[in-house]
Amino acid sequence: MAVALAVTGGGGQYNGRMTWFVVLSCMMAAMGGVIFGYDIGISDSYNDYPCEGGVTSMEPFLKKFFPEVYRKMKVDTKISNYCKFDSQLLTSFTSSLYIAGLVATFFASSVTKVFGRKLSILTGGAAFLAGSALGGAAFNVYMLIFGRILLGIGVGFANQSVPLYLSEMAPPRYRGAINNGFQFSIGIGALVANLINFGTEKIEGGWGWRISLAMAGVPASILTLGALFLPETPSSLIQSSSDHDKAKQLLQRVRGTTDVEAELEDLIKASSISKTIKHPFKKIIQRKYRPQLVMAIAIPFFQQVTGINVIAFYATLLFRTIGIGESASLLSSVVTGVIGAGSTFISMLIVDKFGRRALFMVGGIQMLISQILIGGIMATQLGDHGTVSQGYAYLIIILICIYVAGFGWSWGPLGWLVPSEIYQLEIQSAGQSITVAVSFIFTFIVAQTFLSMLCHLKAGIFFFFGGWVIVMTAFVYYLLPETKNVPIEQMENVWKEHWFWAGIVGEEDEKIKIQGV
Ligand SMILES: OC[C@H]1O[C@](O)(CO)[C@@H](O)[C@@H]1O
């Protein structure tokens, strides 16, 4: 007889195994990650710095859409001077994606909550598709920017709904593995974009950038089609309809067992609370939800101030130093991309066994040590020309790889996983929108400020981000409870049992009890 460890309603684990149903729907949903990564990689290797790789470094592209930048680039050929890329129009091109994404993700919150995860994923896919078509066909800069706005709407919707979809679809004990697949897909998307750019840059006639932009249509189509055929998640189905029989059938199919009572009961309970909540954004600022709100903001913020994008950018300069020259940007994105995706893959395999906290700790310490060493070497070895010797460049590249692996199994994937699994149903959709918005804001701020930071702080920039890594590692150590294997519907309890959060959410419980008497 099968061992049924499930405890009915309110405690312990649910039944269910990893079914093909789950695997397939998650593969489809992961296309949302591929497109996000592809967007990051295609406009530029490192979040849109118009200097290395990416369409914004292709001369024909700049000549056509940003002639002023192109002229400056031709006049001043000193490679180290990145200021020449400074252009209002180019900045609007870059930022349009993030700003559109920021706004869209709040709309996505209502769509996801009221109409379900599928519709948000579908909207994201369709916006991507339209955006890639416009970008590929653009004949002026406005069309280009409009296309990028549509891509932004796409990421706003997809990043809001896909992580939730993945976490709800997954059986709790595989949730980490499945959700980490999102960051893995981001990594694959970025890598593929870099490879495609490398090829299209060489196309005679200077129209290769059109292929780069239009190819985003491939994962976008898979996502759109997938969303049409994907099943809704059981909790979303229960939230949006009162047909519990249908939800039960779906749950049975998804979990691959007929014994789903415990989970169904918890889902129905969670959804009836959620249905009484009309304004989730007002709700989430209540003291009762303080830990979730803090995590919704802190986690994506920390993910960006690890400094990952700056380090990845810096890797290219080092590949130049060791004499790779022209292909430096490609090689560096392939090396960091493969290591990043590889380590995220490892994290998929171990996150549900060792837990989130252990990975955060190991990754954090690993990133910190490599950052300190890189900063130290840079501070002591930087020559007159602002470069290090070849030998040290090799050493720094190795340290960068160690850093990237650290990010790849900790803050990279967990920055998406943890927020997607900690919210109660009534605040889940709002919480995830806040996470996406904070992520976009800081990705953008770091991208926009780091060149001048690099210029002023020099080696100090590694200590700056290293300092943040210390803060976030301590934050996780003291304030983030372990969430592995805990069903989402029972996640509330982890705060009630936490040394610090218990005082905050517990007090609220007391008040409710007193009022209730
Ligand atoms: O999760 C998103 C983050 O992960 C990266 O793709 C690196 O793997 C970053 O470029 C991005 O900011």
From TrEMBL:
Entry GO CC: membrane
Q: Which residue range or ranges hold the Major facilitator superfamily (MFS) profile domain? A: 25-484
Annotated localization: Membrane
Give the stretches traversing the membrane: 20-38, 89-107, 119-139, 145-166, 178-196, 208-230, 293-317, 329-351, 358-379, 391-412, 433-454, 460-480
GO molecular-function terms, A-Z: monosaccharide transmembrane transporter activity; symporter activity
| Topological type in the membrane | Multi-pass membrane protein
Q: Which SUPFAM superfamilies match?
A: MFS general substrate transporter (SSF103473)
UniProt-listed InterPro entries: MFS_dom (IPR020846), MFS_STP/MST-like_plant (IPR044778), MFS_sugar_transport-like (IPR005828), MFS_trans_sf (IPR036259), STP/PLT_plant (IPR045262), Sugar/inositol_transpt (IPR003663), Sugar_transporter_CS (IPR005829)
Entry keyword annotation includes Ribosomal protein: no
Q: Which Pfam families match?
A: Sugar_tr
| Keyword Transmembrane helix included in the entry's annotation | yes
Keywords, sorted A to Z: Membrane, Sugar transport, Symport, Transmembrane, Transmembrane helix, Transport
Matching entries from NCBIfam families are given as: SP
* UniProt family annotation: Belongs to the major facilitator superfamily. Sugar transporter (TC 2.A.1.1) family.
Name recorded for this polypeptide: Major facilitator superfamily (MFS) profile domain-containing protein
- Organism classification, top ranks? Eukaryota, Viridiplantae, Streptophyta, Embryophyta, Tracheophyta
